[in-house]
Amino acid sequence: MEKILNYIDGSLIEPVGKQYIDNYEPATGKVYAQIPDSDQQDIDLAVESAKRAFPKWKALSNDDRFRYLMRLAKLIEENIDELAAAESKDNGKPISLAKMIDIPRAASNFRFFATAILHFPSESYEMPSTAINYTLRHPLGVVGCISPWNLPLYLFTWKIAPALAAGNCVVAKPSEVTPMSAYLLSKLAIKAGFPKGVLNIVHGLGQKTGEAIVKHNDIKAISFTGGTQTGAKIASIAAPLFKKLSLELGGKNPNIIFADCDYDQMLKTTVLSSFSNQGQICLCGSRILVERSIFEKFKQDFVDKVKKLVVGDPNNNKTRIGAVVSKSHQEKILSYIKIAQDEGGKVLCGGHKINIEGRCGEGYFVAPTVIENLSQNCRTNQEEIFGPVVTIAPFDTDEDALSMANDTQYGLSATVWTNNLKRSTHFATHLETGIVWVNCWLLRDLRTPFGGIKNSGVGREGGFEALRFFTEPKNVCIKY
Ligand code: NAD
Q1: CA 225 – ligand 1 centroid, Å
Q2: Cα 230 to ligand 1 centroid, rounded to whole Å
Q3: Which tens digit of pLDDT belongs to each residue from 83-108?
Q4: Which CATH number fits domain 254-449: 3.40.50.300, 3.40.1180.10, 3.40.309.10, 1.20.120.80?
Q5: For residue 409, which of 389, 433, 436, 387 has the smallest C-alpha distance?
Q6: pTM over 0.85
């Protein structure tokens, strides 16, 4: 059975304590690899190595760092088949999705930040006839990156790439639920010739390995993506240590559909925004709000399309819905469907697990589920389920739609479907979210600020925002 290793000080090594955790393939329910159960000692080694590497890495020109990152991007692209297969096996997502979205985006993350650092400006303010102020932006030192299981390599590299580009050395931990692509990345970093200690990838459990990163005095910043409760725990540890914190957390995103929209485009995209990656994308629209005049038509058309989604073996290219990530997550999703029914919800399709014949007989599959008849303040509409489950509800006026959309503790993203320009700009202004899509979903330009408000997070990733996070500004004032 394959043993994943930590990548510390340029080498692939066993955890100091020699302890391992089982790694499951969600589509089969079988253990297929072992993950290091790393602890404080492993993090100490990684931090020491990163500290040793920092002076030289920081002193490189942006152009030199650009070359390392571009080499890694190219290696990811050259190994797309192996990486996509690994991501699909580890996560349960369709291999076609991993090949089309996850792995290409991981390569783009490195390419994007490799080039972004070449163009990263800093401010200067002149006080006429008196002085000139200019701002230096220096890397922070050793930084920690902690990522979740839903888009494993995609989100892992979204943090590592800007941290490295800005001149920091990194101690990173992927989710213990989906460690394989991060392990393969460490092998590619070795191939790319990264200097020892610049990037360290340590595997293990959140409360052990993750907390050891957050608590470490020599780690100057934490970039975290994951659940809101974990974010709160990390903030409670990191804030008194005055670490910089970027928290990308959960969501309960509204998808607001007006009768004046481009109906076919909306319908097609709404199936994707509800169920891509088994609904396990923080940006999936889980509360679908529909103008009453088209509610019945939408309901019928939407449910018809959802029933046709092929649920099955992620290795099959026809599969649109693979396995959810773990048995415990499958149980959580099913328990929320039960809660929805107890709250008076009517299940229009799905609502149960699915048994797939053959090699996936023991896998964790959930039928895509659409539920109606629920108020906005019930648990189903307030708590993040993070699976293939959406609710639909009608609304009468723009103001109703806006207040239903904003009636949540979360504020990550929202989608609005309308051809009315005035209405779309009104919603864009008043929706309490960090991201608004109008007549589209998940259309990403990596230069844009990415993140949420309310309980969906603090800070922004993406573009120069990420480079600002991973650097410390210092103002210099020179008197004439
Ligand atoms: P999680 O919070 O359980 O774990 C995320 C990461 O944090 C993992 O690597 C985990 O090991 C680590 N971790 C757990 N406890 C920790 C602790 N006490 N200290 C340090 N690290 C710890 O989240 P998950 O279940 O892996 O991912 C699903 C969640 O992520 C959902 O809530 C989803 O909305 C959110 N998410 C948000 C975004 C975004 O950009 N806002 C993107 C993707 C996923």
Answers
A1: 5
A2: 6
A3: 999 999 999 999 999 999 999 999 99
A4: 3.40.309.10
A5: 433
A6: yes
